[in-house]
Amino acid sequence: MSSIRVELSGENQELLDRLRALSESDIAAAMAAIGEALRTSTVERFDTGKDPEGRPWKNSIRARETSGKTLVKTTQLKNSIHAETSDKGVAVGTNKIYAATHQFGARNRTIRAKSGKLLRFKINDKWIYAKEVKVNIPARPFLGVSEEDMQAVTSIIQEAVIEN
């Protein structure tokens, strides 16, 4: 699974010590809440078309030509975002094999026909036929922790510690 990792340290040491003192069920509940908060904010990025830093994704050719949204033609990637939690931590990611290409981008990627002899695609109302093409796919990060996410994580941890 492509995922993100967040570590709290430094000024949060007292908070972390108090969190460690909680029971396993309290920690599991806090981690589940953190996982859902991070999963939700990741899914919302597909609606806003912005990375965790708030920068807009570069529009895809398909989105530009169809007045659609980048990375959401079929919503498979968006719908594949899930969180895995335990008392040790949280992972948010996807099992889609192409996720890393969208997250990090790809330069000089070769695309070949899967079935048939030629690729067939349309650019600017013109049909293109080719055995293979080389493309540059810009990075469109959707995984990551924004400043708002960090605030939510801190609030969830503080709430868990205060209630106990």
TL;DR?
By secondary structure, the chain is α+β, with helices and mostly antiparallel strands.
Question: Mind explaining what this structure looks like?
Answer:
- The protein contains 6 helices and 7 strands.
- It is of the alpha+beta class and 164 residues long.
- It is 40% helix and 22% strand.
- The protein is elongated and about 65 Å long.
- Strand 5 and strand 6 form a beta hairpin.
- The protein has helices spanning 13-20, 24-48, 61-66, 76-79, 99-104, 147-163; strands spanning 2-3, 82-86, 89-94, 106-112, 119-123, 126-130, 132-137.
- The strands form 3 sheets. It has a 3-stranded antiparallel β-sheet. The protein has a two-stranded antiparallel ribbon with strand order 4-7.
What labels would you give this structure?
single chain; 164 residues; alpha+beta; three-stranded antiparallel β-sheet; two-stranded antiparallel ribbon; elongated
Query: Which segments are poorly predicted (pLDDT under 50) over 5 or more consecutive residues?
Result: none
N-to-C order of helices and strands: EHHHHEEHEEEEH
- Beta fraction: 15-25%
Total DSSP E strands: 7
Shape assignment: elongated
Count up the helices. Answer: 6
The largest beta-sheet arranges its strands as: 1-3-2
What is the topology?
Layout: E1 2-3, H1 13-20, H2 24-48, H3 61-66, H4 76-79, E2 82-86, E3 89-94, H5 99-104, E4 106-112, E5 119-123, E6 126-130, E7 132-137, H6 147-163
Antiparallel strand pairs: 1-3, 2-3, 4-7, 5-6
Helix pairs in contact: 2-6
